[in-house]
Fold Lipid kinase, YegS/Rv2252/BmrU family.
Amino acid sequence: MRYLFLINPHSGSGKGMAVWQKIHHYLASQQIDYRYVFSMYPGHPRELAAQCGQRRPAIDCLVVIGGDGTLHEAFSGLLMTEAPSCPIAYIPAGTGNDFARGYRISTKPLVALQQILNNRQPHSINVGCYRDQNAEEAGIFLNNFGIGFDAAIVHATNHSRAKEWLNHHHLGTFSYIFKAVHVLFTQPAFELRVACQGKEKVFPRAFLAIASNHPYIGGGICVAPDQRIDVRQLELVVVEKRGWLSLLGAMLAFASGRITSSSSAHVFRDSQLSYRIRPAQYGQIDGEEPGRRVFSLELTCRDYPVWQEPLAK
Ligand SMILES: Nc1ncnc2c1ncn2[C@@H]1O[C@H](COP(=O)(O)OP(=O)(O)OP(=O)(O)O)[C@@H](O)[C@H]1O
């Protein structure tokens, strides 16, 4: 096997570089055929991954070291090319690491590396695909596509001047909770129309809509407990803003990983979902922001090979 390591040294406020140093030290002491490349700027992981098929000598597996955003870009790059699918593997080095949770990859770099080196067959995972007819834009999501509450928190947190400092001092969760409380009181309701399995449902006062590819969001919150990354299906959870008390209850259920059992929540599950949202809202796609806008989404599924043995349950 010939591996290409793609590293975002800045992910997780510098964790990417620290993880790579550990991995590099180990690889250099073994008989392993590998190359490596650093991503230098936002968007670079996508470009580097898109060139994988043309590399000579050919590579058998692209190993990404970074956070969920870097992994998302690498998958997008691989899926953009017509070349035969190059299997991917992942060593988490971000702050949230939700994909690693969803696929069961260790957050200990050398254990995650062994999951790759000991692997013997490709594992097929589901990748969520979206087409926004409104913005004439298409893309993928590995973790989730959120609109409303969670996306407004991502926006507030990403633009917080204290983010770097809090992450550096392992206080990122506090920043997230603080922003969540603020958004809870300021985020207005919006209209959502969902079409699923031939039926349309209208929510005049939706508060959040999260489509998930595996159970986790926001650094380990369980938002879709029945969702599995190896099943060709997506889960959309919609929460309504009925009144302050029920909304507060729903958000507490969200924070404690029980949102799907809240009476304000509605769950839709299928390999194809469409929904429209008005007026303009914040969105988040695997933690990155597509901007505040009106959405008209069609979600579908496709599969992709991962070269990594998941940890035992
Ligand atoms: N050399 C670089 N300098 C700055 N940004 C980069 C570089 N390489 C990649 N990026 C961009 O950094 C963004 C965020 O990366 P990523 O999500 O992996 O890290 P993170 O935000 O620290 O982790 P998490 O998403 O878990 O919080 C990605 O959009 C990626 O394109």
